[in-house]
Amino acid sequence: DYSLMIEENRYWFSVTISKRKTIEGSLAGFTIVVSDISNRKETEEVLRQSEERFKQLFEYAPTGLAILSLDGHVRHVNLAVCRMLELEADSILDRHISFFAHPSDRDVLEFRYMKPTSQISVMDLRFLSANREIIYATVQSSMIQFSQSANQYILLHLTNTTSRKEAEIRLNDY
Length: 174
Hints:
By secondary structure, the protein is α+β, with helices and mostly antiparallel strands. Helices cover about 30% and strands about 40% of the residues. The chain has helices at about 40-60, 80-85, 90, 105-115, 160-174, and strands at about 1-5, 10-20, 25-35, 65-70, 75, 120-130, 135-145, 150-160. The strands form two sheets. It has a five-stranded antiparallel β-sheet. Strand 7 and strand 8 (about 150-160) form a beta hairpin. The longest helix has 22 residues, at about 40-60. About 15% of the residues are buried.
C-alpha cells in the first residue's frame, strides 16, 4: 500500500504488477493495476482508534474488570484487579477466580459461576491479596459475547469496598 499527498489530502492506493507473456512464453510487457484504497484505509484507521479507546477504557478503568471463561477461569484483567490483588496479570490469568477468593467464599463463587445466567448478578465477596490481606469487594457479573466469536464469557466488575467494610466493622465494635 502506498500513500500520496495531494493538496494536503492523503490518498492511499495499491499497485499490482503482473507480467504479460506472448504465446511463445517470452515477456511481452506488464499490466499495472492501481486501485484507490483510501476509503478502506480510513475505515481501518477508525477501527484501530476505536479498538485503542476500548483497550484504554478497559485497562485503566478505576474499578476492577475481569473477563472469565464460562468455567470461571480468568482470561483478561485490568490494572485495577492487579492492584487489588497485588499481583501481576500473568499471575492471575488462567487461574480459576475462586483461587483468589477468601476460603469461606470459594464455594459460593464456584457455585455461582458454574451456572452463569444472562442476568446481571451482584454479590459481596472477600478476596485475598498476594500478602494474604482480606479485600472486600462488590462483584457484578454479566454474560458477554464478542461478535467475532461464538464463545460466551463472564464479565466481572469488582469494586473494592474494603475501606467502607472496615469502617463498618469498627463502628459495630463500639
